[in-house]
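#lab-general

N.A. 3:47 PM
ok so I finally got the sequence cleaned up, no stray characters, all 103 residues accounted for. can someone with queue access submit it? mine expired

B.Y. 3:52 PM
send it over

N.A. 3:53 PM
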Amino acid sequence: METVLEKLIYNDRVKAGLIVGIVKALKGDLEDGYLQTLPELVRAEMFENFNEMARHLLEEGYKDAAAVIGSASLESHLHRLAMKHGIQLSQTGRESKYKAQEG
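B.Y. 4:20 PM
back already:
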């Protein structure tokens, strides 16, 4: 976008149109998942696979095994998501305390 703004385009309407096009393209890329890192994509795929396994186990009547797999998968995913967004996690015994990371 800086390149568009630096060019000698004297018509503000043209500049605005170019910037709107760039923003729309970025929004589309974000919605389609192209702005995620490879590890994030792999984790999302694994999360989906574990959820499918848990769903299958539940349908077969193995509710305890389904709960263990589902909860472990969810906890792992939430932990990575918290780390990505700067939320510090600390565990004491069986309780978890969540707080925003300082600084």
